[in-house]
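Project standup — Tuesday

K.O.: blocked on the structure for the chain from last sprint. Re-posting the sequence here as requested.
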Amino acid sequence: MKIVKIIIVIIVICTSIVFYSKYIGTSGLETREYRVESDVLTSNFSGIKVIHFSDLLYGSTTDLKDLEKMVEKMNILEPDLILFTGDLISNKHKLTENDKKKIIENLSKLEASIGKYAIYGDFDFDLNSYESIITSSGFKLLTNEYEEVFYKTNESMYIVGLPSSIKNKIDMTKSFEFYSDENRKYTIVMLHEGKSIKYIDESTYEVDLILGGHSLNGKIRLPFIGGLFKDE
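H.V.: unblocked you, prediction finished:
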C-alpha cells in the first residue's frame, strides 16, 4: 500500500508540473519596459518607442485570443518601431488557411509610426508560408540585411536583421555594408538565438542594442523558481 501511495503522489506531482508548464506558466502577457540611453543617440530620438516580441509559437504557447490581446496591448503603447525576432508558429502545429488569415488579420492591425520588421527564427525556415504571412502583415523581413530608418528629422539609425544561425548562415559583411567608424550611427541588431551574439563579438562592428528570443525565458517554468533549461 505504501508503494502504491508513493506512485500516486509521483503521478499527481508530474501531472501538476505538466499542467502548470503548459496551461499556467505560459499564459498571460507580461510587458516589460526599459529605458535606453546612449551617447550615440541625439536628443532628436528622445521618446522613441520600440516594441520587441518573439517566439509567438502560435498553436502552442499562444492561440487566437492571446494574439488579439497582444495586438491590442501593443497598439495602446503607440510604438514607433515593432520588431519580431522569429518563431511565429509552433513546429508541432498544423497551420490551416484560416490560421493564416487570422494571423495576418491581427498582425496587420499592429501600428508603428516608423515601421515593423521581422527576422527568421529556426522554426520559420520550416514554414513555407512564413515570408508571405509576415510581409502580408506589413512587416519587412530582414535576412542578413539592414534598414536605415528616420525619426522626426533627417537623422537616422540602423536596424540589422540576422537570421537563425541554426538554419541559415549569418553574413556579417553583407548585414553591415552601411557601417562606418567615421560616421557611426545608433544600430539595433535583431537576432534569434542568444548564441548568435558571438558573430558580433568576433567582428569589428559596434552595435548599441541587441534584441533576440529563442530561450523562451526557460523551457519549463516553475512557480517561485522561474525558467529551467534555458537554450541560448
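K.O.: great, moving the ticket to review. The first helix runs from residue 2 to 24. Helices lie at 2-24, 64-76, 97-107, 130-136, 172-175, 197-201.
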